[in-house]
Amino acid sequence: MKLHHRHDWNLTPTEAVALQQELRTEVVSDRPIDLDEVKLVAGVDVSVKNEQSQAAIVVVTYPGFLPVETVLAQRPTPFPYVPGLLSFREGPVLEEAFEKLKAEPDVFLFDGMGIAHPRRIGIASHMGLWLQRPTIGCGKTLLCGRYKDLGEEKGSAAPLIDRKETIGVALRTRTAKNPMFISPGHLADIATATELVLRCSPKYRLPEPIRLAHNAAGQFSPLPA
Question: How far apart are CA 205 and CA 29, in angstroms?
Answer without folding.
Answer: 24
